[in-house]
Amino acid sequence: MPKRSAPEVNAGSMADIAFLLLIFFLVTTTIETDSGINRKLPPMEEQEEDIVIKQKNIFTVVVNKNNQLLVEEELTDISDLRSLAVEFLDNGGGEGEEACDYCQGARDPKSSDNPDKAIISLKNDRETAYKVYIAVQNELVAAYNDLRDREFMRLFPNEAMSFVAANKKYSDPRTSPDEKERLKPKLAEIKLMFPQKLSEAEPSKTN
Amino acid sequence: MSKFKKKKGGDLPAISTASLPDIVFMLLFFFMVATVMRDSTLMVKNQLPAADQIQKLDKKDRVMYIYAGEPSSRYSDKYGTQARIQLNDKFATVSEVAAFVLAERASKRQELQNVLTTALKVDGDTKMGLITDIKQELRKVNALKINYTTRIGDYAQNID
Q1: What pTM does this model have?
Q2: Is the Cβ–Cβ distance between A194 and A115 less than 8 Å?
Q3: ipTM of the complex
Q4: Residue A17: its chain B contacts at CB < 8 A?
Q5: What confidence tens digit (pLDDT) does each residue in A3-25 have?
Q6: Contact A130 B125 (CB under 8 A)
Q7: Which end of chain B is less crowded, N or C, counting CB atoms within 10 A of the terminal residue's CB?
């Protein structure tokens, strides 16, 4: 009688298992994407005419070469920057045509007229450290985002999310086109209420 | 009787290798998906600053990267410790940025050429002077969309 070897293990289902695992990993892994603060640089061509901006509508932020922060010419700690910027943007001190009906600020006539007029001017020295500059940028963007969140939640309570969350959802490729169409005008409206007007002056030379 | 005899069978049964290709393919696919391609090796220190008001960067094919920072320790003997710009695999000067952007733009598909973003991956300790110079160069070639690439974290980490 010939020797019989052990029966071979059936490998037919191995491929199925492999594909199952493959699909599992495909679904669960996310490719790391970089993130950061988006900015738009001003175009090169010079403005034809100088636009006159009232001093009270400009919020000057200066970072000097020792990485110290000067807000409206006063030495300030960076932790106060966000609330100061919110105060300035939300002031709504304008009257008549320039009045701002959604602002909740102090309506100080010495501060900005309305968020559309309000400009934040950021100036830094050539010796300023990049990380401090980013921290300042971050806080200024945060000030805008805080205000936009507030208005978004006030105007569209049905969405039950903040402006930042809605914006994220809008730019997410997984969101359906219908949903995007629905969010788009709402986001645009809020952006119009608090337009990001951040002007960056060319840095001063250190002598 | 023979029922009990066959157990001690002589030669080892061959292990089936039929599934080996599947396993290999699976691993291959996994790594293909999970790896992030980095087309240039970093030659500069690149400790990104932290921020929390961030947005995700566009799709990879719409982004070009500019690195800047002090040359890393391997290169500091040769290039000193002054912050420098790295484009692709080489150190570059500010004047080369414009040419780099134009070359990158030309290498992209037509419909993407106007939506390109420049990601600035700059070391936190770099002085703003260099970054301003880069930004001026970018303005000259009309590459206006920029992204300051950061880590996710509280701004307070940036201040010592």
Answers
A1: 0.77
A2: yes
A3: 0.75
A4: 22
A5: 677 777 776 666 677 677 777 76
A6: yes
A7: N
